[in-house]
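Feature request, filed as a ticket because there's no other form

It would be nice if the structure record came with a short human-readable summary line next to the tokens. Right now we just get the raw output. Example of a typical job, pasted below so the devs can see what we mean:
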Amino acid sequence: MIRYLRTLWRNLLHRDRVDEELDEEIRGYLELTAMEQMQRGLSPEDALHRAHRDLGQIDQVKERVRDIRVGVTLDTLAQDLRYALRTLARSPAFSLVVVLTIALGIAANTAIFTIVDGVLLKPLPYVYPDRLVMLWEGSLTDGTLGTVAPANFFDWRQQGHSFDAMAAVDPHQDAILTGSGEPRRLVGAAVTAEFFPVLGVRMALGRTFLPEEDRPGHNQVVVLSHAVWLNQFGGRPDILGRVLTLNDLPFTVVGVLPRDFSLVSRASDFEARRRFDLWTPLALGSPPPEWQRGTHSLTVLARLKSTVSLAQAQMDLEGVAANLRRLYPADDANRGITAVPMAQHVVVDVRTALITLLAAVGLVLAIACANIANLLLTRAATRRKEIALRVALGASRRRIARQLITESAVLTITGGTLGLLLTWLSLPVLLNYLPADLPRTSEIAVDSRVLFFTSALSLLTGLVFGLVPLFYSRGISATDALKQGSRSVAGGRSRLRGALLVGQVAVALMLLVGAGLMMKSLWRLWGVSPGFHVDHILTAQLSLPPQYANGYSFGTGKHPRIAVFQRELGERVRAIPGVRAASFAAYLPLGGNDNSWAFDIEGRPQRPPGVFDVANYRPVTAGYFETMGIPLRRGRAIDSGDGEDRPLIVVINEAMAREFWGHQDPVGQRLRFGDKTWRTIVGVVGNVHHRGLGISPAAEMYVPYAQVPNVEVHPTLVVRTSTDPETVVRALQRAVADVDPTVPVDQIQTMNELVADSIAQSRFRTTVLLMFAGVALLVAAMGLYGAMSYSVSQRTQEFGVRMAVGASRSAVVRLVLGQAARLVAVGVCLGLAGSVLLSRLIASLLYGVAPFDIGTLAGVSVLLVVVALLASYVPAHRAARADPMNALRWE
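Raw output as currently delivered:
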């Protein structure tokens, strides 16, 4: 259409230069008229005679046509479309196969692009997102990035000069809402007053925090999420100024966030807590107390000044870090500051996987295009007389190309529209299967960017397979083609079809190898022992009201109310029919929460300033190891006698024993952390995969809940049952309500669900890639079947001669299969070479599988060869069953 309009405009402006093009237009018009006459039953000879008669009058027609060029051009376009539709309608099976193939290929590409666009390509949903960065404390020894100490953040904000503003988030500020029905835990975050302005958030109602509200004693104000405002308070417009009771304290609502606001992040940044219900001021001291330089709980965001580059800001931060190392060597001697663009940081864990899926689905479309091109080439062989007649009429290659492009455009537009419809229908289903820890899923939608992508992809697809048959018309002799007996097949065309088949086989093998490696990796991941029993375990998170911390003094290890609550609830839960054991833990394996503490080992030399021995910190109650099925390796486990008034103890895991004691027995050794009081190691337990099945177990130390040096008010209840865990949920909730009705219970999950969720990303990409590989294998097999069928039909006379002179049917079958085997062998060799490169690209996504896995390469190659030969056997069998006499009379 664009070419038509461009030519039309040029002709209207330069009417004295159009004779040559006008001749071509008129010839094309008469040519299509001849084609339509043939479709109505006129013989080729009569149609050719009439066309030559009309062409003889071209000079008389030219002057009249020149004045109505617009009408002729548009009429020619309409005639092209009518002829294309009529031609395609005469081959409904062919047209349906092509349209469905295009639709499936474009739907798959559009669906994956929609996900990639929402997660990777769209700008972050904030004002000037390219200037947003995240700031991290970095280790100078190994470059590890971590969260920020509040006192350090205070100094960064004071001393940094490269930012318009800097804000901090503490994501561990959950609150219990009371006075509005049943008690409910709301996921909360505390932020500095600059937080919402840094992101450029416009509130749906009210305002953000004022600077004076971000101070201790003045911070009892709250901003609600849009979802909580609707679900908990019915979207009442008078919510502003309302006083809510959060953790037994009054908080005044000053704002409601917009519906589409979310704190974009990696799941690991906020421990899978990306949907916050409420926000309160962080209210740091000015300056913060010195102990807040040793605790690291903040995530820091900043907005670069418009005149400052990231490199300049990094140099500025390095100066700030050097100053802090000089002033506070005990805490900051080994710490630097690293600035990372926010958009880059958010997707660092998923970029490779999503790009791999996009490339894979692109290869599927390439196979589909090759298959369609092969179908068109095969179909073009049956249209040689038509093309020859056009050549005889004087049609140029450009004129033939225009008609072929028109036909491919009809197929492509139909297939692309159907593909977009399939994407729109399937996307909600696909979103339900996305991993929960995939960032920015709320921004995945079919929008103008997706529509543009689909349109461009459809146009490119049409050009790719639409122009291939044009080469089929090269060298066609009108005289030879119009002869009834001419059925020769040009060797170049056969080579082109063969090359397309080889390409399909090679690409299909690459996808199958990728899917095979992913599948083997997932299988290995599923086979990893998490270090505890998975079956018949139910978990539930509890949120204890603030009064449970009353009577606690930091470092004493005494939590009288918490201990009484856990003891009474544990007894009630263990009395539930079907419950075999119950205990409490502060940080559940694979639950997304974690904590680590620095410690000193008695008798060891003191570490240099700023360098610490660190291990993960696990408060648990008696019976936890038995409930979870964590094996005891040495010494003893934590028991009910390890109370607040007993000697302080700790149990470590094998990874910690090996890392810090080597082959020595750590039982009886002492360490201290937090409260600086020495604790005796009484036992060593097996390793647990806490962060993920594919992540090696780290050093861990388990402390009796009654002896922890801090307050843990969000314990997780772990219950081991003899029946289906789901059957005890109601009884468990009643038990909690009987002990204390003000304690909310949520996040009730089985351990099987937690394990499944931990490998959700690996399972998703494996499933999708396996699906694409299956489609590629099917399309390649269909292409091979079609090519062999056409080859058999063209060689019918040859096979008849062979069998007439004594060739057996099995020899004919071997001949056809040999032809297919040669194509498949070349495709497999090329596919194996491509698979080596592909496997290296996805190496970071694999677990326990070498990128060049011989077993996978061999197995996939055998599978592809078997499927290809099976697809070729049907045409081969049909050739062998041909009657020699009929074959000899075939011409």
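Something like this underneath would help us a lot:
Residues 391 and 591 are 72 Å apart (CA to CA).
The chain has a mean pLDDT of 82.
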